[in-house]
Design goal:
Layout (H helix, E strand, L loop, with lengths): L2 E7 L8 H16 L7 E7 L13 E8 L5 H16 L11 E8 L8
Parallel strand pairs: 1-2, 3-4
Antiparallel strand pairs: 1-3
Protein name: Isomerase
Pfam families: CHMI
InterPro entries: 5-COMe_2-OHmuconate_Isoase, Tautomerase/MIF_sf
C-alpha cells in the first residue's frame, strides 16, 4: 500500500516523464498520508485509444488512481488528489499542443486486499 496506477494516452508517451513523476509522487504520498516510501508502488498503463467529448486526433488523458488502506479522512484524500494534479502537470511537456485532460482519484482499498 499505496497502490498507484497511472493510465495515460499514447499521444503523451514521448513527453511524459514517468519515472520522475513516480519518484516525486511517492514522496508526496509519504508526506500527505504518513506511509513509508518503500510501500509506494506505481504501475503505468499506456492507452492506445482515447476519445474526449466529440473526439479529435489529439485527444489525450492522464488519470492517476491511488488506493490506500481505509481510515483517511475525505478531506485528506481530496487534498492529495489536488496535489497530484499539480505535480502531474509539471511532468508533461505539451510543446505548444493542448494539455491532456488530467484527473486523479484517491480511494480506499477493499477489505479483501492482501500483500505478500
Amino acid at each position: 500500500m499505496p497502490q498507484i496506477t497511472v493510465d495515460y494516452s499514447q499521444t503523451v508517451d514521448p513527453s511524459f516523464d514517468r519515472h520522475g513523476f513516480a519518484r516525486e509522487l511517492h514522496a508526496l504520498v509519504v508526506r500527505t498520508v504518513d506511509t513509508r516510501l518503500d510501500a509506494c508502488k506505481t504501475r503505468f498503463r499506456r492507452i492506445e485509444d482515447t476519445v474526449v467529448g466529440a473526439g479529435g486526433a489529439e485527444d489525450a488523458v492522464v488519470h492517476v488512481g491511488i488506493a490506500l488502506l481505509p481510515g483517511r479522512a475525505p478531506e485528506l484524500k481530496a487534498e492529495l488528489s489536488e496535489a497530484v494534479l499539480d505535480l502531474l502537470a509539471g511532468h508533461l511537456e505539451t510543446a505548444g499542443g493542448p494539455m491532456p485532460v488530467l484527473s486523479a482519484e484517491v480511494r480506499d482499498l477493499e477489505a479483501s486486499y492482501r500483500r505478500r
